[in-house]
Amino acid sequence: xxxxxxxxxxxxxxxxxxxxxxxxxxxxxxxxxxxxxxxxxxxxxxxxxxxxxxxxxxxxxxxxxxxxxxxxxxxxxxxxxxxxxxxxxxxxxxxxxxxxxxxxxxxxxxxxxxxxxxxxxxxxxxxxxxxxxxxxxxxxxxxxxxxxxxxxxxxxxxxxxxxxxxxxxxxxxxxxxxxxxxxxxxxxxxxxxxxxxxxxxxxxxxx
Length: 207
Ligand SMILES: C[S@@+](CC[C@H](N)C(=O)[O-])C[C@H]1O[C@@H](n2cnc3c(N)ncnc32)[C@H](O)[C@@H]1O
What we know:
- It is a single chain.
- By secondary structure, the protein is an alpha/beta fold.
- Strands 3-2-1-4-5-7-6 form a 7-stranded mixed β-sheet, sandwiched between helices.
- It has a single domain, classed as Rossmann fold.
- The chain has 7 helices and 7 strands; from the N terminus they run ααβαβααββαβαββ.
- The chain has helices at residues 7-26, 32-38, 55-62, 74-87, 89-92, 126-134, 169-175, and strands spanning 45-49, 66-71, 95-99, 112-118, 137-148, 181-189, 197-205.
- S-adenosylmethionine binds next to loops.
């Protein structure tokens, strides 16, 4: 039974959006939290889990990261790959696009200097997914997770993420052993009034 955010639903959503607004989507800027919070890191290997249209993947690759970009929507991956191709080989050759389900896809242990996962709804346990993705972070590496809360705490009204289970700060803290990680986590109010709050988690694995 679909919860509205399973693979087929995302594939239909992406196919329609990209058919109608493909050029606009290809021009989307990378996530502002990612740019502000990890922009100063030295490039290495990165994983973008739930890469969607690829704006963050392409920004990382342009900054010199070797990126593994995972999503379960072939339409989103095809579009992102085509955008990378138009940018050119300097960026396109630094990305491996992987069709995979983050409900079970598991990174190679300690492979990545940066693992990011932005706005991914998980059907099962967000804590389990964060724990699995965190297993891919190398010693000294960074885990960067953002989730949009489904209810605006200021108004009690549903946000555009209503009905989804995105990662919360409590989920991330439950997934990460505080003895092994330096964790910075905060809720940030979105700039557009009424759109609610994001949980932003940046955790660095101690050496
Ligand atoms: C809201 S979009 C966010 C895309 C991108 N991270 C961003 O911040 O713009 C969520 C993305 O996660 C993907 N996704 C959701 N659940 C997934 C799963 N179980 N496995 C792989 N990808 C998934 C969707 O296809 C979609 O591209």
